[in-house]
Amino acid sequence: MAETQQGSIVSGLSYQYLSTLTFTVFGGLFYIFIAKFLQTSEVGVVSLLLAITSLLNIVFSFSLSTSAQHFISFYMGKGDRVEMHSLIRRLVLISFLLSLAGIAFTLLMARPLSITFFHSPSYTILIEISSLLVAAMIMFGVLHGSALGLQIFRTDAIVYLSSGSLSYLVGLLFLFLFQGISYLIVGLTLSYLFGAIVYAAIIFLKKPVVKERSRLTTLNLLLSYSWPIILSGLIGYGSQYVDRFVVAYFLDISTLGIYSFVLIVSTSLGFLAVPIANVLIPKLSEFFSTNRRDMLDKGVNLSSSVLTLIYSPLALGVASVAPIALSLLANSVYESGYIALTILLGVSSIFVLGNIMSSVISAVRKTRVYILSTSLTLSSNVLLSFILIPRFGMMGAAIANSSVMVISFLVLYYYAIMKEKRSFDWVTILKIWSSSLIMFFVVSLERALIGNHLDMLPLLIVTGGLVYLAALNLMHSLGRLNKEEFLVYLPIRFKMRKAFNILLGRAF
Question: What is the mean pLDDT of residues 114-122?
Answer without folding.
Answer: 80
